[in-house]
Amino acid sequence: MEFLLLGSLAVRRSGTPLELGGPRQRAVLTMLLLHANQAVSVAQLTEAVWDSPPVSPESNLRTYVAGLRKVLGERLITRPGHGYQLVVEPGELDLDAFDSLVRQGDEAAHEADVEAAAGFYGEALSRWHGVPTAELSAGPLLRAELTRLQERRLTAVERYAKAALELGRFDDVIDRLRRESAQHPLREELWAQLMLALDRSGRRGEALEAYAAARKHMVEQVGVEPGARLRQLQQVILESRVPSPATLNAHRQLPMDIAEFTGREAELRKLCEPGPQTTVVISAIEGMAGVGKTKLAVRAAHQLVQRYPDVQLWADLHGFDADELPADPAAVLESFLRLLGVPGGQIPESLEARAALYRDRLAGKRALVLLDNAAGEDQVRPLLPGSASCLVLITSRRTLLRLDGVKSLFLDVFTPGEAVALLSRIAGADRVEADREAAERVAELCGHLPIAVALAAKRLARRPQWTVRDLVAQLERGGGLGARGVFDLSYQALPDNQRRLFRLLGLHPGEDVTAESAAALAGLTAYETEDLLETLLDEHLLQQHTPGRYGLHDLLRAYAVEQVMAADPPPARDLARRRVLDWFLHTSWHAELQLNPVRKLEIGTADPAVHPRTFADRDAALLWCDTERANLVAAIRDAAEHGLPEQCWNLAQCLWDFFNLRKHWADWIDTHSVALAAARSVGDRSAEGRMLITLGIGLREIRRHDEAVECYRQALSIFRAVGDKSRQEPTLNNLGIAYMVLGRVDDALSCYEQAAEIARELGNLHTEAVISNNIGLLHADARRFGQALERYLRALEIRQEIKDPYSEAILLNNIGEVYRGLLDFPEAVSYVERALEMFRAIGDLYGQAESLDNLGLALDGLGDRRGAEKCWLESVTLFEELGEPKADEVRGRL
C-alpha cells in the first residue's frame, strides 16, 4: 500500500487510488498518517477535525473510522483507552522517505560533502506536491500539525538553497526561491538566500529589488522593518563586499556561438563523442592560425552544454599573441577560482595549491573547460580538472604530445566545398550558384583559410552590385593569396578615417577595446568612434564576444600593427599611445576617488583630447575596474615598454586599492614590480620610494615578510636621503607592522615610536592615531594591557576629534579586548557594544563579525553563556557570508 501525504492526500493499492471519503474523514486519515504507528486519542482527533466540535464527537469519529476501515482494512486498529492507530509499513509513507532523505542531507552537510547534501535535499523536496489543506476540514490541532509539516519542508528548501549556493548553482535555486518567498513573504531566510543567489549570479539589481519586495511585505503586513540579516545583506550588496563576479555569471563563461558556422561536421561529431567514464575527457584542436580552431571549439562547447550543465569556464591563454605574454596558469586559476565562488583572500599563493583547490571545486561537477590558444602542455596541465565528470577542450597551434590522455584533432584549411559553402552562407546562395566557378576561384585565392573566406564573403555581401567574378578580379588585382590578400582588399577599400582607426587599434594595450578607450587612442569622441567600430565590425575586421567590447583576431592584430608602423610616423604613434594610457590612468584615478576617498593621489593633467570616465558611486567604479582589469595590467606594462614611466607608476598607484580590495595579489606584485623598474630606469627617487612601499605591502600580504622588510628599508633610505619626512612616516609604520609579524617586537616598537614622533612634528593626527593603535596592538599581544590601554585611549581621543567612524570602531573593539584581558568584563562589553553599533551604522560586515565574537567572549566572562552564544551564532553567519575561515574558529566556541 502507498500513502501519499505530501500533496493531495491519496492512498494507492497496487497503483490504484482508493476512495477516501469526505473532508472530515480525510482529516482523520491525515492526523493518523502524521502519527503513523502511534495511537491518536479521541480528544486529539476531535481537535484535529472541528473548530467547534458536536455534542458527541465520538459517534462521528466512529463513523469516519468505519469508513476508512472499508478502504484500509486491518491497517486501522482500535487501541482501547488510547484511541486509534494506523499501521504503516516501512517505505509506504512518502513523509518517511522525505524525512530520511533530509537526515542523509544533514549528515552529508556535517561531513562537508556539499554535493551529496544538495542531492539528498533536492530528492527530498521532489517528493512534495503541495500540502493537503484545501480538501480537508481541519481543526486547530491539524492546522498546527500541517504548519509544522510546512516548516519541515521550508527548512529543507533553505538547506538545499544553501548547498546549491555553495556549489555555485545559482540558476537552480533562483526560481524555487522566488516561488517560496512569494508564498511565504515573511520568512526572511528565503529572501536572504534569493538575494545572495541573484547577486552572485551577477544580477545585483534584481537582488536589491528582492530586498525592496521583502521590506514592502513586512512593513505592510506586520508593520516592522526587515531584520538585521536582511538589512546587512542589502548593505553588503550595495557596497559590493560579497565576493561576486560583477556582471559575470560565474558558471556560464562560454563565448557566443557563431551564427555563420559552416562545415566541420565530421570534426564536430568526433569532439562530441562520449568519452571514457573513468577519466577527464581532454580534446585538443590543433592547426594553423585562422583555420577556425576557436570557432569549432565554441560550437562544440555549445553542443556539449547539455551534457555538462553545471559549470562552463573559458580562458584565452594568449599562447601566440605577439603583443602579450602567454597567460600565467596561476593567474588563470585565480580567475577560475573567483568565478567558482572562492573569495580572493582564500586563494592560495602557489600554483600547486591553486590547482588543487580548483580540482576540488570541480570534483563531481559536470564541468566543461575551454582553453583557447594554448602555448603548450606546461601551460595547460595545471588547468585540467581531476574529475571524470569533466571535459576539457583545448585549441593550439602546436601538437600537445606530452599531455596525458589527450585526444588530438588536427584541423586543416577548408575543403573547396566547405569554403564555397561558407561563401554561399554569408554572401547569398543565389549569387554563388550563379557563378560556381568564380566562387571556387575566390576560395582558392583565399587559400581555403576560413578567416579569409569569411572576410571576402562579408565584402561581397555588403556590395550587392558586385558579382562573384568582380570579387575575383579584386583579389587577383591585389596579387596575393590567403589571408594577407583578403586583408589588403578589405583594408584598402575603407575610407581614410576607418583605416586610421583600424591600424591604431594595433597600439591598444590588452585584449579588447571599448568606444571610450579607442576614442582616446584616435583623439575622437566616443560617439564618433563607436560608429567607426561598428562599421569595422560589419566589415568583419573586428570581433565582438560581449556587447560594447571589440577585439581583433590574432592575424588581424598583426596586420594592424604592420599597417600602423608603415603608415604613421613615430610621433603620431607615440601621441596615440600616450592618449590611450592617459585615458586608462585618469579613469582609474576617478575610480580610486570612489574606492578610497581618504587617499589623495596627485597625477598630471591628461591630453585635452582625452575624456576619462567618472563614476557616480563605489559600485560603478568597482565594476569598471573588474571589467577592465586585464587591459589595465597590460597598460602598465605597455607604458613601461614604450618609455612612459610616469603613466606606468601613477597607474599602478591608482590601482592599489582595487588590487587590495579584490585580493588580486599576482597583479599587484607584477604591476608594482614593473612600475618600480620604470621609476629606477629614469632615476626618479620619490617614485621609486613610493613603489617600494606599495610593493612591500603586497609582499607582506602574501607573507613574504623578509622581502617586504627589504622594500621598506630601501624606501626609508631613499626618503631620508631626499629629506621627505611625510613619506618616512608611513614607511616606518609599515616596517613596524612587518617586524611585528616576524616577532621582532623591539624593532617594531622602535619604528612605531619614530613614526609617531614624525606624525606629531607634521601635525598629522590621522597617522598619529594609526600608529598609537599599532603600538597598542603590540603591547596587547605582549599582554601589557595597561600600556596598550593608554595607547588605545590616546588614539581614540584623536579619532573622535577627526571624525573617522571606521577607525574609531576598530579602536573601540580593541579597547574592549584589552578590558577583557584585564578581566574587567563590564567595561569590555560597554566598549565592544559601541564598536558594534558603529560597524553596523557604516555597514562594515567584517567589523561586525569581529566585534560580535569579541562581545560573545566578554559576555561569557560575565557568565552570560546564552548571550555569548547568540553573538557567536551571528558572528559565524557573517564570517560565512564573507567567506572568512575565521568562521570555524568562532563556531568552535559554541
* Coarse structural class: alpha/beta
Helix content: 55-70%
Parts with pLDDT < 50 across at least 5 consecutive residues? 240-250
> Which outline best applies?
flat
Largest sheet: 5 strands, parallel
Rounded mean pLDDT is 85
Q: What is the C-alpha radius of gyration, as a whole number of Å?
A: 34 Å
- Annotation field: number of helices: 41
Major beta sheet, strand line-up: 7-8-9-6-10
Brief overview:
The protein has 41 helices and twelve strands.
Plain-language structure description:
The protein has 894 residues and is of the alpha/beta class. 64% of the residues lie in helices and 6% in strands. It is built from 41 helices and twelve strands. Helix 15 links the parallel strand 8 and strand 9. Helix 9 packs antiparallel against helix 10. About 1% of the residues have low confidence.
Keywords:
12 strands; 41 helices; 894 residues; alpha/beta; three-stranded antiparallel beta sheet; single chain; five-stranded parallel beta sheet
Fold topology:
Layout: E1 2-4, E2 10-13, E3 16-17, H1 23-34, H2 42-49, H3 57-72, E4 76-79, E5 83-86, H4 94-110, H5 114-126, H6 140-167, H7 170-183, H8 188-200, H9 204-222, H10 228-238, H11 265-272, E6 281-286, H12 293-304, E7 311-316, H13 329-339, H14 351-362, E8 367-374, H15 377-380, E9 391-396, E10 406-410, H16 416-427, H17 429-434, H18 436-445, H19 450-461, H20 468-478, H21 482-492, H22 496-504, H23 515-522, H24 526-538, E11 543-546, E12 549-551, H25 554-567, H26 570-595, H27 618-641, H28 645-654, H29 656-662, H30 665-681, H31 685-701, H32 705-722, H33 725-741, H34 745-762, H35 765-781, H36 785-802, H37 805-821, H38 825-842, H39 845-862, H40 865-882, H41 886-891
Parallel strand pairs: 6-9, 6-10, 7-8, 8-9
Antiparallel strand pairs: 1-2, 2-3, 4-5, 11-12
Helix pairs in contact: 1-3, 2-6, 4-5, 5-6, 6-7, 6-8, 7-8, 8-9, 8-10, 9-10, 11-12, 13-14, 16-18, 16-19, 18-20, 19-21, 22-24, 22-25, 23-24, 23-26, 26-27, 26-28, 27-28, 27-30, 28-30, 30-31, 31-32, 31-33, 32-33, 33-34, 33-35, 34-35, 35-36, 35-37, 36-37, 37-38, 37-39, 38-39, 39-40
